[in-house]
Design a protein that fits this description.
Chain lengths: 122, 521
């Protein structure tokens, strides 16, 4: 079963993403802060991480930097509300595999996650 | 004035002729006396000897006599000396009426050039910022040469002018200097094509230099001229000093106004920007949750036994949250300062963006919007945020003017004859009173208390930035039309497409792909 991790400081967002992806037969791990995410990745080893950019404490960009250093193979999709173009450019430079804006279109998000996982298998 | 000068010249020549007549008489008696010494020589008694004697006397003495009479004439008949003293007096009287610095400068150089019959007269005025004397008005020098003429304390003539504070005559100066310094003096005078430089001071500060070429007939400047110009300089100092102070005050005022406007604009923008981005963040998370939960419910439709009717409502929830998010997205994108990317502009897209933005603020319900945007406009290179701002301001103005409804027309077309793009934004509103039209583009000009009065000022700045023109025509109770003309540069025909600074999100990309293809095709 493919495994994904959802990182967002909003509990409700984690919750509906979990129920959506579990419905689609994914194994879902959630984290509500950057620190928690980095801790859990070590143990859980998800294939794809959905990472919110704006979070208190370690934000999405910090997490992305560390994550790509330690686990370069993990695919990361950045989730943004309204970020400045520099933030998005910075994320892409740091190795983010894609980005998606809130509110999320779940259909599109699943397509993208699937796409990343097939690339991993290849 | 010219007539008086001619009369003087005529008088002068008459005097010279008269003295020559006496000279001829004296010459004749002299030659008779001379002939008395040679009583037997026929030649000395012949008429031709007298003639030759008188003519050669004429030839030898004409110039000294002319010169002598001229100087007597100057000293005795004309109170101040040289024949241009009256012109200078006239100039002084004229300039007492307060006039702008530039105008005064032109008056000075033109009057002096005419009075002296000199080919070149240049006025250099102190620029306090750079502490240099720059050519401001000139009679005889080309504007392109004038712009190069700046003298500072490094130049010998400036140092001399400050030291001596009396007219500097080139030919006198070079005699007092070593050949090296004399060379410097000559070359500095040569740059101004001058033979004399008159320093103009006020309260002990040198504020201007008046450089004059040789007089008509290449006459050198004498001590008498120096005295006259010294007087002129002290009189002009007061007038010129006043005009210079006024000029400096005015330009400082303008500069201040400009700075204030930019400051206000940037502070206004950053406030909107902060608000918008904070607002968007605050609102996007709840929207994401609402939309996400509805999408999950839709997904479990069968499992949960959700009816078709409820499913439709859920779809509406998803759609409407997207719409709400679009508004905050646009607001944020609009207010965010971007790296200016110059790209071929899609005017209809920019107009639509601006229209959709004002629709959030103002009611467009009672306003009919007509767009005439030429399809095959030549590529025009500009930055999207600037033109969005331009249209937003023009459209907001138009909508403001039509509180009771009306017609808003946006016309964009290419004028092939002048190779310009013409943008016309017109409304059928209450119009602008004629007395307000000249102030329309001034910063902080507004007839409404809730407007800063910067909109049209910014529009004008953008138009000028692109080398264009803007004008407003208005008739009360008929409406107003703003006409902007922007030159299409030849280089825009083959634009090199810069990288977009704000990559569209994948969702957006999907949705607007066809538009983008159209835009950049």
């Amino acid at each position: 079963m493919p495994k994904i991790m959802v990182v967002d400081d909003e509990l409700e967002i984690c919750a509906f993403l979990r129920s959506f992806f579990e419905e689609r037969l994914y194994e879902v791990v959630t984290a509500t802060s950057g620190e928690e995410a980095l801790r859990k990745i070590e143990k859980e080893r998800p294939q794809v991480v959905l990472l919110d950019i704006k979070m208190p404490g370690k934000d999405g960009i910090d997490v992305l930097r560390e994550l790509k250093q330690k686990f370069p193979k993990v695919k990361v999709i950045m989730v943004t509300a309204v970020e400045t173009s520099d933030k998005i450019e910075q994320a892409i430079k740091l190795g983010a595999d894609n980005y998606i804006t809130k509110p999320l279109s779940l259909e599109y998000l699943e397509m993208d996650v699937k796409d990343k996982i097939t690339k991993l298998v290849d | 004035m010219r007539y008086a000068k001619k009369r003087k010249k005529f008088l002068l020549k008459l005097l010279v002729l008269l003295s020559l007549f006496f000279l001829a008489e004296a010459g004749r008696s002299a030659s008779s006396t001379l002939a008395g010494f040679f009583p037997h020589n026929k030649f000395f008694h012949s008429e031709s000897f007298h003639l030759i004697f008188v003519v050669s006397l004429f030839a030898f003495l004409y110039r000294p006599i002319d010169h002598f009479i001229f100087s007597i004439f100057r000293r005795v008949l004309s109170r101040c000396g040289a024949d241009y003293s009256r012109d200078i007096e006239f100039l002084y009287e004229e300039s007492k009426a307060q006039m702008p610095l530039k105008e005064l400068g032109n008056l000075v150089v033109n009057t002096l050039a005419e009075a002296l019959g000199s080919a070149v007269v240049t006025l250099l005025v102190l620029d306090r910022k750079s502490n240099a004397y720059a050519a401001m008005s000139s009679c005889g020098l080309k504007p392109s040469d004038m712009s190069k003429l700046r003298f500072t304390d490094e130049h010998l003539i400036v140092r001399l002018a400050k030291q001596e504070n009396e007219p500097l005559v080139r030919d006198e100066l070079i005699m007092h200097f070593s050949w090296q310094e004399a060379n410097v003096v000559v070359s500095e005078f040569q740059n101004l094509r001058a033979a004399m430089i008159v320093p103009v001071s006020v309260h002990g500060q040198l504020i201007a230099l008046c450089a004059m070429g040789l007089r008509a007939g290449a006459k050198a400047y004498t001590a008498e001229d120096k005295r006259l110009f010294q007087e002129f300089s002290s009189k002009m100092g007061r007038v010129l000093g006043q005009a210079l102070a006024m000029h400096e005050l005015e330009s400082m005022n303008l500069e201040l106004r400009d700075k204030q406007a930019t400051l206000l604009q940037s502070s206004k923008l950053s406030a909107i920007e902060q608000l918008a981005s904070g607002f968007a963040h605050q609102i996007h998370n709840p929207l994401t949750i609402i939309s996400g939960k509805a999408q999950v419910l839709l997904l479990r439709k069968e499992k949960m036994g959700i009816s078709e009717e409820v499913a439709r409502e859920l779809q509406t929830i998803v759609k409407e949250t997207r719409r709400a998010a679009d508004i905050t997205h646009k607001l944020a994108a609009f207010s965010r300062p971007r790296k200016p990317v110059r790209e071929p502009l899609d005017f209809s897209q920019i107009v639509e963006d601006a229209l959709s933005l004002i629709s959030y603020q103002a009611s467009l319900d009672s306003i009919q919007v007509i767009r005439h945007i030429q399809k095959d406009l030549p590529p025009f290179i500009g930055t999207v945020p600037e033109f969005r701002e331009l249209f937003l301001n023009l459209l907001l103005n138009a909508v403001d003017a039509m509180s009771g409804g009306g017609t808003l027309m946006i016309k964009i077309r290419h004028l092939p004859a002048t190779s310009e793009i013409e943008i016309k934004v017109s409304d059928s509103g209450k119009g602008i009173p004629a007395e307000h039209i000249p102030m329309l583009f001034d910063p902080f000009f507004s007839t409404r208390h809730d407007r800063a009065g910067l909109g049209l000022f910014i529009v004008q700045k953008i138009v000028y930035h692109y080398g264009g023109t803007i004008k407003a025509e208005s008739q009360e109770n008929q409406g107003t039309v703003f006409v902007i003309r922007l030159p299409v540069l030849k280089s825009s025909a083959h634009p090199s497409q810069g990288s977009s600074d704000s990559p569209a999100s994948p969702q957006d990309r999907g949705r607007s792909a066809s538009k983008e293809v159209h835009q950049y095709a």
